[in-house]
Design goal:
Layout: E1 11-15, H1 37-49, E2 54-57, H2 69-85, E3 95-99, H3 104-117, E4 121-125, H4 136-149, E5 154-158, H5 170-176, E6 182-187, H6 192-199, E7 210-213, H7 219-224, E8 229-231, H8 239-248, H9 255-271, H10 273-291, H11 310-316, H12 318-330
Parallel strand pairs: 1-2, 1-8, 2-3, 3-4, 4-5, 5-6, 6-7, 7-8
Pfam family, one: DHDPS
Enzyme class: lyase
Organism: Purpureocillium takamizusanense
Length: 341
């Protein structure tokens, strides 16, 4: 049997949005706005400087289902080149490329393109189109077929909310974790019992299979039960704060650090309600308003118009956002802009 592939580094991974040209651009197309590669690169470099472990490209936040497969490698290659030029060559700030197709063949093709464009791992969404009649055996066979042919190690992306509510049993994760080219999972269902049955399972070699929560609002409890970190949308606009919370969760802490950890988790959990309420438009709005990158309404159909409610709705979130921004500013000396890590 071949040696296991390496799992992705522990820590905070940012599932980056895909930036599209704004309405003010001469290249704007209301039906299919083109990529804004400059904004994409600027955002990625800022996250790398803030200390995230890596970037997930074309996940749910990245509107993977709104991007034609032929265009994915263009953005991935541009992103890898810009990170390399800024001094973040692999293994610094690696890339994980998402897939969201139901076909084994197309999934493998996307992973092959991702590998050629500079991605180190693939994050494969559980196929859910035929959820009512998909068996656990079928899921095992699907991921095994993908992993057998993928040129890069893959992770299982379990997000019932976008997979027709298909459910993956903990025993299925145990079976798939034995495959040398399946090296982890992202769990975005919010079910802590199921998460623990995977992250604590004695049937899984956790040095080769890393379990990430997809919910920053659960980072502290998830880390206490052997999670490797989080792949969390709020890391796009509060990356230093999420990295700090992860660090505080990693080992023995002083009394003051324990107090800081619980207070920071509370603030993160309150702030994450913005994403729960507004999803991708909320993330893009926050990145635009807080970090000055991209256009808050720069999505692709069927998403359009940005976060509903505009300035009035944004004002409702300023209380929790300002408390988070206080932490982000306080942490700036730890991750100064432009500093080499």
């Amino acid at each position: 049997m071949p040696l296991p592939s390496p799992p992705p580094p522990r820590g905070i991974w940012a599932p980056v949005p895909t930036f599209f040209a704004s309405k003010s651009s001469s290249r704007y197309n209301a039906v299919t706005p083109p990529f804004d590669l400059d904004a994409q690169g600027q955002h990625a470099i800022g996250l790398a400087r803030a200390g995230v472990s890596g970037l997930v490209v074309f996940g749910s936040t990245g509107e993977a289902v709104h991007v034609h497969p032929r265009d994915r490698k263009v953005l991935l290659r541009s992103l890898r080149n810009r990170l390399d030029q800024a001094g973040f060559k692999f293994p610094r700030c690696p890339l994980m490329a998402g897939t969201a197709t139901n076909s084994v063949q197309e999934t493998v093709e996307q992973l092959e393109d991702a590998q050629r464009a500079g991605a180190q791992w693939g994050l494969c969404l559980v196929p859910g189109y035929n959820a009512p009649v998909v068996s656990q055996e079928g899921i095992v066979m699907w991921f095994t077929a993908v992993a057998n042919s993928s040129p890069i190690p893959i992770l299982i992306y379990h997000y019932p909310g976008v997979s027709n509510n298909v459910q993956v049993a903990p025993s299925t994760f145990e079976a798939l974790a034995r495959h040398p080219n399946i090296v982890g999972c992202k769990l975005s269902h919010g079910d802590m019992s199921k998460l623990m049955q995977i992250s604590l399972s004695p049937a899984i070699n956790h040095s080769n299979f890393h379990v990430f929560t997809g919910l920053g609002q659960q980072l502290l409890p998830a880390m206490t039960v052997n999670c490797a970190g989080a792949i969390d949308g709020s890391a796009n606009f509060f990356p230093k704060s999420l990295v700090r919370l992860y660090t505080l969760c990693c080992g023995p802490q002083s009394f003051d650090e324990k107090s800081e950890r619980t207070q920071l988790q509370y603030r993160v959990s309150c702030m994450e309600e913005l994403i729960v309420t507004h999803g991708i438009p909320g993330i893009k709005e926050a990145v635009s308003r807080l970090r000055g990158i991209g256009d808050g309404d720069g999505t692709r159909l069927p998403l359009f118009g940005g976060m509903p409610g505009g300035d009035e709705e944004w004002a409702k979130w300023l209380g929790v956002l300002n408390k988070m921004e206080e932490v982000e500013v306080r942490l700036s000396p730890v991750f100064p802009e432009g500093a080499e890590m």
